[in-house]
Predict the 3D structure of the following.
Amino acid sequence: SMTDDLFALMQDLKASGKIKSWGVSIGSADEGVKAIENGAEVIQLVYNILHQETGKVVFPLAREKETGVIVRVPLASGWLTGKYDANTVFPANDHRSGRFSPDLVKETAEKVSKLDFLLEEADTLAEAALRFTLADPVVSAVIPGGKSPAQVADNVKAAGNPLSDSAMDRIKELFG
């Protein structure tokens, strides 16, 4: 398969000294497992409070093989910033408009509404969401979007400040 060819190529490039290390952005847990088993030294994946499935499968293997993990979409395409609700309609030119039907908007808003307890220990829902994604030591880095210097500054506040065990347990009960 093309994937197997790619892995063979990357292994050859590394063995010949042309590259020092390599990684891949994955879309599914199966892809992550395959990439790690084929020598990827870092993988990038979607992981957030609302989408924990891939992490649950990939993180233990990444830990075992000492593979780096970069998390993308840690704020669930903006849902974990708290600025959308059940009445949100994304404009046609927004990448979310095709992915979020009115039913999915309502369902996602309902899930997010259950996270208000996080504001007891974080200034914003976004900060809590980033602290959640950084909680597992296997996560090397997180890529949150920042459209302004203020958003970047807010995102940085999440580093080195884990959520309480009780908040982590509650998140896992709700969405794990």
Notes: The chain is about 45% helix and 10% strand.
